[in-house]
Amino acid sequence: MTSMCVNDVIKEEYSFVYGDEAVTYEVIRKPQSEDKKRKIIIKVHPNCEIIVTSPEDAERSDIHEAVMKRARWIYVALKEFRSHLEFIQSKQYISGEMQFYLGRRYVLKVIEDSDTATSSIKLYRGKLLVTLSTLNKDKANQVKTLVNKWYRTRAEIIFHERLAELLPQTTWIKGIPSFRVLTMVKQWGSCSAKGNLMFNPHLIKAPKECIDYVILHELCHISEYNHSEKFWRLLTSVMPNWKQVKTRLDGMAELYLNE
């Protein structure tokens, strides 16, 4: 379980197992006036996030019981939303579209400014702001190129930071492994037999915990170049909640990989 407090609202994260899948859900505890009936509300969102809203003094056991009573409904809803994600339309790279960065959503805003010397891109007040100095015939492709270059640059920076943070846990590794950022269709990362690492730049769209999972997964392959029981034990030793994190990443994969 993890928890944090934002603007006096306590957020917690738990999981339960349904079939062969670990399902993660977030609990948000909110103050409730005495004249209102105490309720535990469960919502499954189209992006496959599961949010449970409860009174701030609700017992953990009561929340768990409420979730387990609706476990089948939650699982069915997840399957339905995941099937919808398979038919997500390709991006047009126009203002108003949604972009992701480190698990957060940002609205793409495209501005044309002939007075600007060079085109630029930056995060600004909840938006991914793209400023074009000149236009070519294919404006969408111009924006796409800038966006993908920005993602790759941010990926190289953040992946280096996370790798340095995680290496002390991986005692079987000597030195600092190098890696390349390479776009892959169906993989978040890979490790060659020689220990060469590659990470998908689209992974930068996911929360840091998901990035850590992929990095640790590939670092474990340096010791165990397979998916044997020994490999999974090693991964569990450095990330005990990897199943929940993997489920979270898998649930958003279609959105993160969508171009």
From TrEMBL:
<dbReference type="InterPro" id="IPR002725">
    <property type="entry name" value="YgjP-like_metallopeptidase"/>
</dbReference>
<dbReference type="Pfam" id="PF01863">
    <property type="entry name" value="YgjP-like"/>
</dbReference>
<feature type="domain" description="YgjP-like metallopeptidase">
    <location>
        <begin position="38"/>
        <end position="250"/>
    </location>
</feature>
<protein>
    <submittedName>
        <fullName>M48 family peptidase</fullName>
    </submittedName>
</protein>
<dbReference type="InterPro" id="IPR053136">
    <property type="entry name" value="UTP_pyrophosphatase-like"/>
</dbReference>
